[in-house]
Amino acid sequence: MVTDDERLPDPVKAARALPKGSLVIVRSRDAKRRHTLGEILQAQTHGLILLAADDPVLADRLHGLHLPEVRARDAAHWRALRPAWVITVAAHSPRGLHAPYADAALLSPVFATKSHPQAKILTAVRARLMAQRALLPILALGGVTARNAALLPGFSGIAAIESLGASARKSESREAASGFPSGRAT
């Protein structure tokens, strides 16, 4: 999951709905908000892998760092300094998938997305080919839904923003209707 100030209004609720071992990239343009969100997620969720988006100071308090494609080469620097960190990189082209010291890459936008409506989409076919040729695990991002995820075999996983928020809202509605939690840790 990737947090988003506008499109994911309650990232803590969405994160609580994720299965243990899921990756959460803490992203906000405002550093204070990003740090506060990182601290809240760390305190109120358990079993998730929390990464700071392009913020090594926050990454030191979480599980690692997510780098934009323009700084993907910095993964080698951070791997040398912080070998225990989980490090991911953003990728928007085949070149972005060659970050040998990263643990994984988020390839986007695979489908049309509200985050970047003017961006040229990769398409499922092109993204699959890129993922097959990559030397590191690839997560699909950008317009991925439960419906179109089936078009992405060969990816190590998917990442999402808004669709995960919708899942958390549906889970909460089921809880309210039944009076019982839907099996997720709180």
Give your account of this protein's structure.
By secondary structure, the protein is an alpha/beta fold. It has a single domain, classed as Alpha-Beta Barrel (TIM Barrel). Helix content is 32%, strand content 15%. It is built from six helices and seven strands, in the order αβαβαβαββαββα. The protein has helices at residues 11-16, 31-44, 56-59, 74-81, 124-133, 162-178; strands at 23-26, 49-53, 64-67, 86-91, 104-107, 138-140, 157-158. It has a seven-stranded parallel beta sheet. Helix 3 (56-59) links the parallel strand 2 (49-53) and strand 3. The radius of gyration is 16 Å and the shape is globular. The chain starts with 10 loop residues before the first helix and ends in an 8-residue tail after the last helix.
- Can you tell me the CATH topology? TIM Barrel
Q: Could you list the spans in which at least 5 consecutive residues all have pLDDT below 50?
A: 167-186
Helix amount, in percent? 25-40%
Strand content: 15-25%
Going across the major beta sheet, what is the strand order?
A: 1-2-3-4-5-6-7
Mean pLDDT: 87
Order of helical and strand elements: HEHEHEHEEHEEH
Distance between the termini: 18 Å
Radius of gyration: 16 Å
Question: What's the CATH H-level homologous superfamily?
Answer: Aldolase class I
Number of domains: 1
Biggest sheet record: 7 strands, parallel
Instruction: Quickly name the level 1 CATH class.
Output: Alpha Beta
> What would you say the CATH architecture is?
Alpha-Beta Barrel
- How would the global form be characterised? globular
Number of strands: 7
Count the helices. How many?
A: 6
Structural class: alpha/beta
